[in-house]
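Put briefly, the fold is written as integer tokens. One such record reads:
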Amino acid sequence: MPLPPVLREVGVLLEPTTVAEKGINQAYEIQRRLKLWRPERAAVLGSGTIGLLATLLLRLRGLEVVCFSKRPAPYLNSELIEALGATYVSSEQTTLADAAAAHGPLDLIFEATGFSPLVFEAAKALGKNGVLVLASVTGGTRTTEVDADVINQGFVLGNKVMVGTVNASRDDFVRGVDDLVKAEALYPGWLGRLLTTPIAGLDNFEQMLRALTEDTDAIKVYMEVT
């Protein structure tokens, strides 16, 4: 008997949801030190699974959100962003600094691109009292030049914070379930649209690997097992 859609979606999406959940909750927890921190505007860098879910969670918290990603709209990911009432911006058409000027000041930036130089652009674009959350793991030996004095001064005088996030706790999983159920109620069918690529059974692992490495339109590749 097939699972009800909401249970299937929670089962497949809960773990990546906790990555976004952990990072966003960390931002709120850290800025309790400011007592009156009330974030209104956020940016999500990257529109993969984590970026989409981070946008969802921020919208559930009532924030205005701009998602900054490479590929020009329209395509499925940009449509999913806009379906949440958020704004999609392509990095091929504008810079992060210009996006921040148009949609900021940015109280929270959630980075999920895997492109490390963008971290330093985000550090400059972050608004006063803002939090920059780093959620992507990068490899290689990429180097870049940074405006070290500008970033340092901005963080010290602007009460800004940069934090990495990993290893969600049990509480993050509990909150993740609550938020996914809430999302299904507020945005019916949205979660199901993330499940782009079902693979039937463990025997088809080669098909799964091809989908993960070759299908540029796949958002969430998952296996259906009985």
Notes: Residues 5-30 form the longest helix (26 residues). The CA atoms of residues 41 and 64 lie 5 Å apart. The mean pLDDT is 93.
